[in-house]
Amino acid sequence: MTTTNTAKPQAAPHTDSIVLREGLVLVFWSVAVMLIVMNTTMFNVALPQIMKDFGLSSTTASWIVTGYSIVFALSSITYSRLSDYLSVRRLFVIGIACLGAGSLLGIFSHTFVMLLSARLLQAAGAGSGVALGVVLVTRYIPLSRRGRSMSAIISTATFGMGLGPVVGGVITQYWGWNGLFIITSLIILLLPVLYKLLPKEAGNHVRFDFAGALFIGIGVTGLLLFMTTGNLLALGAGILLLLAFWMRIKRNDQPFVQPELLGNRSYMLLTFMGFAAFAAHFATLFLMPLMLTRLFGQSSAMTGLLIFPGAILSAFLSNPIGRMIDRYGNHYMLRAGSLLLLTGAVLFGWLSGTSPIGILFIYIPMSIGVTMLTTSLSNEMSRILPKEQIGAGMGLSQLIQFVGGAFGVAMSGKSIAWQKSLPPADVYANIFWGIAGILLLAVISYYVYRTRQTAIVQTT
Questions:
Q1: What InterPro entries does UniProt report for this protein, alphabetically (predicted)?
Q2: Residues 171 and 245 occupy one common structural domain
Q3: Which of 58, 81, 181, 263 would bridge with 106, disulfide CB 3.0–4.6 Å?
């Protein structure tokens, strides 16, 4: 199944003499990331209408988000790993081409299969946005300014997350969900500008572990299919392919994921925190439109407006969060972010069935907590990982985070089906109590991580 190669790993593209036009690149890249994130949240608001148009169950409809998240995750780490061999500029062109093709297919989709195919093709390109943005920041921007640069990208992503439901709700209500693909296609206009601004890196010969990528992709998909359908064949295939993936990365000299990362306990604790945060946030964004529509009869446009304040407030706080990280370090935000997420989940479990305004205000601490946690996680990982592992480590982290998002959405859809005999308000409350349990584990993981880091400092 595998072949062992004794050749030395390829070096990353040569960057010593390259100066990044930091301000301009961050501005245009952030806009691209905003459109990519909008592409996700716009469709969350449209899910109730899509379910109605195609007669879908919540479990089936969840795959519009789950499938997108899986492909997005795999493409993210793929672009990160390929950035060790190919220029960021070339990879960005490939990503935008896939995203544009998916958007074009989506505009003319009239069946669920066409819609899902369009979303998967979009995801194959959309993964380039955040992944390559992190590579640019960690490769070209000094650590002293890295927190602010990370927060610039995160803030526009968060703004897109907040703007997405508003734009998506209005377009879905008045023009239909096919119009959402038109908004995403606007990213093509940024391609000529960014292509000119991005560094001209000298690439290397590509030796990419496509088999490893295939094994982990199908393996994770198999496990998620089992969770949502109970299919034992999917479970068996998922387990076997993940075992094959583990064997391959141990024997391959240039694996898809470096096994050293999986053995780095501090890194894995941070990664689990990201998994839990994305599982909670994606599940919340999946559930909120369903709650607002089914419990309170809100329209698509009003649903978007009710989600908007939490996300937009989080976006406005992103730059202060970045400055606080640069000044005080990452630990404060890691702790505060995880606790805010847990608070939001508990409040959703307790009060979400009371009123639409209650949902609006409960989402605020959760949205702010996600921004705090994701910004500080990326910065902390870039601090603790060896330089030669940063690209792969960031890619693996994003893979696990979006698998977490897919897990959260898939299990939420399945949980709704499991509890169909209960009152709807109780169904959503029970799911949020489960989410709170996952976030409690994330809080515990942070304190274990802090203890480990303190011990490492004391012994050096």
A1: MFS, MFS_dom, MFS_trans_sf
A2: no
A3: 181
